[in-house]
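Hi L., both proteins are below.
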Amino acid sequence: MMRFRLDSWWFGVPLLVRGPLINLPVVLATDYPPIQVVCIAMILTTTMVMQMLAWPWKVPLLNVTDCIISFCIVLTVTTSTLYLNKIDPAMYGFASGVSTAMLSGIFGAISIMVCMTVSALIYRSAMGGQKELRMFNLGRVPNSEELSKKVKEMAMMLEKSDTGDIASKLAALSVFDTQKITTCVTLLATEVAPPLEDARSFKFNKRIASSSFDPALKRKPQSLRLTRQKKEAEPAMQQAENVEKDVVHKSEWI
């Protein structure tokens, strides 16, 4: 499970089921090669689409190589149907060329995976983390301090905004942008914001927290009402401390 992203923790199940399903058509349709090819292609295509939608691996480059391998395997299985019957030399050359190209793509993707494995042994860092190589992350990852400042500034700006104004702007967004916002809110509520008793109300997507793997990372949930009361009481407490300091300072002066 640690190989997958926390919002794609379930992807291990399709990977385990894919192997037996691929072998099943060979057993059920032993004397019907076309049925075998169609069933295997359907299974591989379904898992490939699920992988492209979920993007489950923590390392972005690993998701790309997995898609390339799945695509090449599907085309290889489909091209194998050309060899079921006798074909002319021209068609045989075409089928051989496609098969060679797909096998080359698979070999290239596996070579990239081998390089990633070797680099992980030498360059020890969390796979898929911010300190990972830029090539593996398919781009630059912003610094955590810089990102925290931006998040804090954005939270302050949203707090000053009117709820109706925010609602009207959210209503104008497309469904894909809305899904990104809900994913962001779920991530912030799960990993960044302090835990609350009603934190489930901020979770729009099914995502497990990183603290689920380490009990030491779990924090005691805080009541939203108590949190607001503490926030409202902070100015009064600060004023009381200032008054106390002034009294002490005057007594020392006297």
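That was the first. Here is the second:
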Amino acid sequence: MVLDHQDAGFNAIRVPLHYSFLESDDAEGFKLLDRLIGWSRAESLYVVLDLHAAPGGQTGANIDDSTGYPWLYQSPQEQEHLIAIWRRLTTHYRDEPAVLGYDLLNEPIPHFPRLAPLNLSLEPLYKKLSGEIRKVDAHHILFLSGAQWDTNFSVFGKPFDANTAYTFHKYWTAPDESVIRQYIDFRERYDVPIWMGESGENTDEWIAQFAKTLEKNNIGWAFWPYKKMQKPSAIVSIIPPADWEKIVEFAKLPRGTGHVEERLKARPEQETINRAFADLLESVRLQKCRVNEGYLRALGMKSDVAPVSAEGRRTEPCFNL
């Protein structure tokens, strides 16, 4: 079940990927991705493949399931692992017209001062990775993210690939041109395309103003995320199942040996846990979600759209705002 994104006004989707689902040519990740790309192709939507979780961790934070430190930049083994993942992806999709391009690393290198020395390793890694990808796929766009959660373009020198776009993310800032000036300057200096690959997590008013700022400056965008639990800062919202709050509160409790007894006392009954997760799998289905019309209008999209099944049949959402 997919929302009719094209009718709403969208022309592309950015799909976050975890490397662990792409470890072989017949991995489940490719089966799921092939299905999604097939749906997108049928709706004339482009797909950007975003490696959200890279081997070794490009951030060392929760978004890449790593061990607490971004070993990718200092580990030759993890870099070879990364190359193998992208070689497999690009071999699989090099002739796929629905794929717009490859977002090589999501939000590399956090803003923490102790990680700043890793900035010097980012562009060399991109060059190495790009060189290997171009042996397989010479025509898809390579999207390169800046350092410090994809906000810092000072790590880049002169572009080294003729079919590259530079992407930035922007959260919790003013929604005006001042916060994107460095990216505009980079575009003008090197005559290369730039793309706002992530933003959002804000009010409809902020979303509307920032989208207008981007479009005024001829910058394409992809707001994050498509689905979100309960909150309206997404295209659609998941309605939490019964007892879900009990699961959330338990997950917030401190961990470690000293807290085992406390956690055991607070742990919901197994029947409650099983039921909550089973209900969640139903709640995430699009026909059970709420379409956030205000969010769509803020993006300048049509808000009176209904979900569409994989077979092309329209299905009304459970309710409209």
